[in-house]
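Researcher: I'm preparing a figure for a lab meeting and need a structural model of a single chain. I don't have an experimental structure, so a prediction will have to do for now. The sequence is pasted below. Please return the structure as tokens so I can convert it later.
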Amino acid sequence: MRYENSICDGCKKPFDENDDVVVCPVCGTPQHRECYEKNGGCVNSALHESGFEWHGEFSSFVKNENPIKKEKTETLVCPSCGHENPAGSAFCEVCGQKFTFFGVNLLEKEQRLTNEINEEEKIENEMREVQETIESGSGTGADIEKMLDARAKIVAPGLSKEQEVLCSNPIKRVLVFVSANALQYVNKFRKAESTGKNTWNWAAFFFSPFWFFYRKLYKVGTVFLSIRLALSVFAIPYTEKMTSAMQALIEASKNSTADAAFMTAYDAFFKAAIPIYIISALTILLAVISGAIGDRVYKKYVTEKLNESSQYSDPLVFSQFFFRNSGVNVLATLISFTVAYLVPNLLMQFFM
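Model: Understood. Here is the structure written out token by token.
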């Protein structure tokens, strides 16, 4: 950025192209290096706390979200000139390039995201090395804990080092076992253990019985899927009767002079629809039961499997058992969904 004809706030003299200019990294004020050194820093340093930013004659006061933090050792590399600026700088101290946009320091944000990505890659590499050690047969119990620690840092960094016991096991094991939406279920399990009250599961309510297969609760899922299929198959003949009654009602409604025929058709349709209404009500009841017992059943499953996994002292056996039963199963969910809708449709095509 060029500052010719702009006024130096230190000596009130205009800059020319040969001047040695220093730009304040906090407010962006350009000043002669001699003025900067004479004042021991920026001539407008007293205005920094109030959020002053230099824009020539249009200088303004804005909320400064990124003051210099001397305790930090990281630097911000200017994308325009490549100069390394102190962490927290809002402007490049050499070329005056502005780093902030609506109060957000874009360089700091980019650097923070990069550090987070690098940290995740480091954790994944450590976890991969431990897993390879275990699979080679040379792993130990300490290696298992390292692997669980690494996975817990990814699932829930804030809780990975907690010593809390949940589901009769260290919380990091619960986090890794649940994996998807781990924090949500940890809070549910905490509430269940502290109050003794059951919690409601909307996913199990709206996606019953598929949610049970998703969470690897195959036995319970099979029971609910079987009941759903039975209701669907039981509804097939009544669906055919209701369809025929609906067509007769439509035909009767077209003849405005045959009121008696219309009422007869209406009564027939209403009687044919009653079994369908009952089956629909039972289907909704099935979903309500799923939502009511979902968290309780899942907490019991997590507790049982974690307790069982702790009985294995061999690292490879532990790892195989733990990750075979933990997490979610998308494939089983898709299969259960296909069975739930494909079987009734095939039967309907066969009978109707």
